[in-house]
């Protein structure tokens, strides 16, 4: 089975509601859809992030994809290593974060292709799953305390066990919103994500104020460039700390573990470079006695399906992982239904990543990108 063709298509995905976080307000996002065909008629599908320019990165992905032509998907690990070595590292442009974000789309499509070729779900190719169901959090949406409170009511009515919300949006707003949400959700788990909003001193002060709302953890309170800053905050507060944007590479995972800078690693295939790198990253965290919480930011159901495979594989998986497709106006996955019930999702054992695209929705998203 030889790879014959690779297609890369930018898709513009509007969100149902403006997405409010410490980095601003987002109304849509774009992904690059990656499709890799082989001479047996199978097509592996993946996606990756597009910042700062979807067209430019689509061209880069097409360039990298030339190295796959004529090769087998079952050479995935060596192919990804070769691409990184020859296209990034060899020129001194040793930028593993950037490379990982591109490789993630290719690697995801290659695993889908391997699974389809073998007629097995990807988790079977990793030796089978550790669990049948993967847990996901409910992601509160809203730009006011009232909207967040109303969404928290919806979460309670749905029986959601884990609630996640953004902070880092202003001291008064953070306190009022968190208080309102905690009063509504009772004893449900609560996660607070500051998305790098604070300096060390502000993080320590804010987390001490938020501690009374009993969060599971506060995620990425300080800037992603400093793992020591996370460690400094963690040593000063009584709330567990999660490392998210500080962790994009295996070296980052190791450094967070080695320096005890966090209590949990929040990481997704879009950052670490795909499915197999996630397994390796989780092993490093496991050795440090830590869990991994799957991170999914500005991703469609394609990544949800890849992350679900990862969730089935990892022994040290958190119970409230991130899921993002439901925030988009359109769903590009025709089947299966990716809606968690009371925070749990168990997808059917289908070959590869286990989904069928809604081709009509894909064409609309591609045209939206081209014409809007
Ligand atoms: Mg986060």
UniProtKB/TrEMBL annotation:
Q: Name one GO molecular function term.
A: magnesium ion binding
UniProt keyword terms in alphabetical order = Isomerase, Metal-binding
Q: Which residues form the Mandelate racemase/muconate lactonizing enzyme C-terminal domain?
A: 145-240
Q: Name one GO biological process term.
A: amino acid catabolic process
**Pfam assignment, any one:** MR_MLE_N
Query: Do you know which PANTHER family this protein is assigned to?
Result: D-GALACTONATE DEHYDRATASE-RELATED, ENOLASE SUPERFAMILY MEMBER DDB_G0284701
Q: Which family does it belong to?
A: Belongs to the mandelate racemase/muconate lactonizing enzyme family.
Query: By what name is this protein known?
Result: Muconate cycloisomerase
Naturally occurring in which organism (per UniProt): Microvirga makkahensis
């Amino acid at each position: 089975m030889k790879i014959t063709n690779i297609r890369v298509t930018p898709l513009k995905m509007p969100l149902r509601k403006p997405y409010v976080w410490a980095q601003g307000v987002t109304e849509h996002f774009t992904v690059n859809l990656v499709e890799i065909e082989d001479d047996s008629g199978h097509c592996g599908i993946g996606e990756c992030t597009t910042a700062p320019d979807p067209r430019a990165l689509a061209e880069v992905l097409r360039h990298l994809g030339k190295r796959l032509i004529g090769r087998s998907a079952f050479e995935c690990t060596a192919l990804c290593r070769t691409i990184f070595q020859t296209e990034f590292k060899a020129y001194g442009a040793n930028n593993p974060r950037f490379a990982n974000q591109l490789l993630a789309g290719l690697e995801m499509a290659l695993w889908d292709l391997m699974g389809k070729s073998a007629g097995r779900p990807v988790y079977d190719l990793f030796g089978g799953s550790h669990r049948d169901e993967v847990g996901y959090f409910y992601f509160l949406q809203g730009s006011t305390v009232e909207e967040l409170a109303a969404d928290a009511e919806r979460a309670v009515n749905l029986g959601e066990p884990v609630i996640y919300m953004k902070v880092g949006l202003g001291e008064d707003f953070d306190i009022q919103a968190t208080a309102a949400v905690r009063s509504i959700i009772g004893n449900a788990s609560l996660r607070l994500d500051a998305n790098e909003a604070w300096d060390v001193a502000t993080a320590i002060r804010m987390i001490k104020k938020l501690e009374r709302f009993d969060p599971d953890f506060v995620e990425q309170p300080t800037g992603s460039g400093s793992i020591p800053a996370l460690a400094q905050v963690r040593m000063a507060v009584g709330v567990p700390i999660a490392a998210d944007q500080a962790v994009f590479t295996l070296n980052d995972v190791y450094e967070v573990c080695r320096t005890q800078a966090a209590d949990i690693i929040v990481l997704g295939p879009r950052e670490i470079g795909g499915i197999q790198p996630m397994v390796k990253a989780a092993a490093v965290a496991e050795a440090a006695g830590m869990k991994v919480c799957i991170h999914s930011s500005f991703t469609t159901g394609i990544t949800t399906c890849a992350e679900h495979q990862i969730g089935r594989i990892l022994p040290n998986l958190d119970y409230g992982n991130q899921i993002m497709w439901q925030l988009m106006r359109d769903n590009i996955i025709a089947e299966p239904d990716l809606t968690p019930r009371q925070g749990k999702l168990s997808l059917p054992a289908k070959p590869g990543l286990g989904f069928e695209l809604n081709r009509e929705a894909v064409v609309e998203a591609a045209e939206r990108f081209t014409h809007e």
